[in-house]
Design brief:
Blueprint lengths: L4 E4 H9 L6 H11 L8 H15 L8 H5 L4 E4 L4 H103 L3 H8 L29
Antiparallel strand pairs: 1-2
């Protein structure tokens, strides 16, 4: 069985009447009484267990004022909890330690998730900005496409008009050629004679065809040939 240990009276009073639970002397006393690891987070629970044990051993202290307790001396000797009771106290404090560790893990996860969420928000903002840029570019592309289509229609119309002019010129060229032929037919006799070959010095043709050849007079019989 563990031996008793001496603690300052003011530390003892702080445990019974409430005090700074972060005080290291008080934490050391609570750890001794409960025979467990105690920190500032577990001090309130350890203090309650310790007070219950002290009041069970000294019931008259429940009615004593702080001044009355301090008048008992400067130091106090305490025994730790009995083995069975200490085991129960240690189980409670161990469970609290597990909950504390789990809470720390959840806090870390929350922090990581918060960072991840913020990163996703930033990424989403970037994607939205790029999407806005693409939409603007697409809208500008539609405008350019509309303008290009309109210009192409204008060029096609001009080409069709030009082709119509070409067809018209072709048709007018045939008419002019016909008119020129008619003019040649209606030209003066002298011009017609020149066209018949006299002007060039070649023998004229015509007259009754030769019986032997059937092609008209023989142009090669003349001495001028």
């Amino acid at each position: 069985m563990a031996e008793a240990k001496v603690f300052p009276m003011n530390t003892f009073v702080s445990c019974l009447r409430g005090g700074d639970l972060a005080d290291q002397n008080l934490i050391d006393m609570l750890a001794f009484v409960t025979q467990a690891d105690v920190d500032a987070d577990f001090a309130p629970v350890a203090c309650s267990l310790t007070k219950a044990w002290i009041y069970e051993q000294e019931p008259q202290l429940t009615k004593a004022a702080s001044g009355d307790i301090e008048g008992l001396g400067q130091k106090v000797s305490l025994m730790p909890l009995p083995e069975e009771t200490a085991a129960q106290a240690q189980g409670v404090l161990a469970k609290l330690a597990e909950l504390k560790a789990a809470n720390a893990g959840l806090t870390a996860d929350k922090t990581a998730l918060t960072v991840e969420v913020e990163a996703l928000k930033a990424e989403l903002a970037g994607v939205k900005a790029k999407l806005k840029t693409f939409e603007d570019q697409a809208a500008q592309g539609d405008v350019k496409l509309s303008v290009s289509s309109r210009k192409m229609d204008e060029h096609i119309k001009k080409l069709e008009d030009l082709m119509a002019e070409v067809d018209k010129v072709k048709k007018q060229g045939v008419v002019v050629a016909g008119v020129a032929g008619g003019a040649a037919a209606g030209a003066p006799a002298g011009d017609a004679a020149a066209a018949g070959g006299d002007a060039s010095g070649a023998p004229s043709t015509g007259g009754e065809p030769e019986a032997d050849f059937g092609f008209g007079s023989n142009p090669f019989a003349d001495s001028n040939w």
